[in-house]
Fold this sequence. Notes:
Layout: E1 3-5, H1 14-26, H2 47-59, H3 69-80, E2 84-88, H4 93-101, E3 112-116, H5 122-127, E4 132-135, H6 141-146, E5 150-154, E6 168-170, H7 173-183, H8 190-196
Parallel strand pairs: 1-4, 2-3, 4-5, 5-6
Helix pairs in contact: 1-2
Amino acid sequence: MKIAFDVDGVVLNSIRIILEYVNRVKGTKWMPADLLSWDLDRLGIDMKTLWDGVDYMYSKPRIEPYEGATEVLRRVYRETGTPLLFITGRRDLESARNQLEALDWDGCVPEIIVTGGTRYKLPYLLENSVDFIVEDDPEHIAQYLEQRIGVGLMLRPWNREVGISVTERFSGWSEFEHWYFGTVRRDPFQQCKALSD
């Protein structure tokens, strides 16, 4: 099974950095737990401030990962022997690569492929023959599933209320690890087929 990972909201806690910027500029106190949607403009943040916050996040040399992300990704890399594939919605791919490489890989940075550039990731998924993506943005999940690409939704405050069907839901990296290493040999679309029967 060829797997891909989103970067922001899945591996890197980027939203914390963006909100840090917004709060400093606007005098607000938004926290990731306050988000009920992936789209931050619904908080009433003007687009200029939002994009400035994104650029601020891009400029950071390092962003803290979510708990367990680095350890699990290191295990995936070690046991598969293939580069880790990241498909991001970022327009600045180099910032994603640099921030991923800056994580604590315990002395051995894995081979990393970073692609993407838009929130709609289907072309990149197809181009890279991806079977399954771990994603936090629910926007285009239905299109991925229609193309028989499995989707593991990494649960975050902004997607917990989404009613869309996905292949798997993970409340954290330990759940992903248990699923991946327990089911890597099975068809990643099997559960979706069972739900539709």
